[in-house]
Amino acid sequence: MPNRRQLQQFRLPARPAQKLPLGRHWPPACRYDTLRPPDDFKPFADEIPDPNGQANQWLENTVITPLSAREYLCRDGWHVGPRIITNSFWYWFENGGGWFSAGESGRRQAFQAGDLLLIPSGLAHTVQLRQGEGVRHVSVHFNALVYGGINLLTLLNFPLRLPADPAAPYACACDNLAREYALQAPGWKRAFAGWVIEVLLHIIRNHGKRFRRPPRQLHGKMARLLPALEWIEQHLDNPELAVGALARRVCLSEVYLRQLFRQAVATSPAAYIRQRRIERACALLRLTDKTIKQIAAETGFRELSFFYHVFARRTGLTPARYRAGDDPGAPSA
Predict the structure, then answer these.
(1) CA distance to 1, 42, 59, 206, per residue, from 38 (Å)
(2) CA-CA distance, 137 to 111, in Å (whole number)?
(3) Across the chain, which distance is largest between two alpha carbons, in Å?
(4) CA within 20 to 30 Å of 77's CA: 14, 55, 179, 300, which one?
């Protein structure tokens, strides 16, 4: 065993004290260090206005569910739509350009290489390339739900097209998302959700002027609606789930409950329940090995044939084709 003198020979020489560059007016935290104040940090470029903390509250109660992320090399004539799908997604095009339309207006808008097209669930859309041959793009599908059922992209009125930006994380996020989904290493779902929220927060903090402000009354209506949404999420497997029983459970009249759904979610309670059942079925098909019969039962469908009918009507595919990867996110020529 080495003695003290021998150990001293292995000690590294002491480094001279270095003076670190500090910001102006750093207040002393204690006698040994100083605290970097908030105003010394670089602010975000363009945050969405949030004077009452509503957007922050919605973000704190948002759950990201990963569905798929795939990288494609397009052939000439590539296009998708017109179509409506049951989950949110984005396209990021590394090269090439074209046009897209979304919503009832059907107005065409141009996009170019590096742009991000962000489409919320339930929104009719069409995307087409000018010249598809050799264009690389990544398609990322997910759900971003506030309180388990309200689409974050619709609630905050996200812009549909984000311009190419060298400082944006779009390219890095898409590369990592495609890798996570392809390899599905331990923890891939958590990593997937992290990259999705990274992109959404970048948009919220740097493209605030592109957002349309949600109505002031919406936050109060959502607070009234929250118990009903939570109850629906907990009982989607119950085929007896009905609007009248739901209204009694949350101590609201059935008429007022229907009004709340129309004003806050833009649909009826019954349509919302069907939508959430199919969205959960899509997630179970993608992320589990359960049989289609088991998934139908877990999403509140008593008859398998009726599940097939509703699923095909909402997605345009059979459950088996959806699970096999022939999903609405795949390009069509």
Answers:
(1) 52, 9, 22, 18
(2) 13
(3) 87
(4) 179
The Cα-based distances of 84 to 185, 206, 258 in angstroms read 31, 28, 24
Instruction: Quote the tokens at residue 54.
Output: 């509503």
Q: Structure tokens of 23?
A: 């910001």
Model confidence at 229, pLDDT cuts 50, 70, 90, reads confident
Q: What is the pLDDT of residue 249?
A: 84
C-alpha distances in angstroms, 83 versus 103, 124, 134, 218, 313?
Answer: 11, 5, 24, 28, 12
Query: What is the total residue count of the chain?
Result: 333
pLDDT tens digits for range 46-97: 999 887 787 888 888 888 999 999 999 988 889 998 888 888 999 999 998 9
Please give the C-alpha separations between residue 196 and each of 63, 140, 295, in angstroms, as whole numbers.
11, 9, 26
Per-residue H/E/C for the chain: CCCHHHHHCCCCCCCCCCCCCCCCCCCEEECCEECCCHHHCCCCCCCCCCCCCHHHHHHHCEEEEEEEEEEEECCCCCEEEEECCCCEEEEEECCCCEEEEECCCCCCEEECCCCEEEECCCCCEEEEECCCCCCEEEEEEEEEEECCCEEHHHHCCCCCEECCCCCCCHHHHHHHHHHHHHHCCCCHHHHHHHHHHHHHHHHHHHCHHHCCCCCCHHHHHHHHHHHHHHHHHHCCCCCCCCHHHHHHHCCCCHHHHHHHHHHHHCCCHHHHHHHHHHHHHHHHHHHCCCCHHHHHHHCCCCCHHHHHHHHHHHHCCCHHHHHHCCCCCCCEC
Start-to-end CA distance of the chain, whole Å, equals: 75
The answer to whether 281 and 299 are in contact (CB under 8 A) is yes
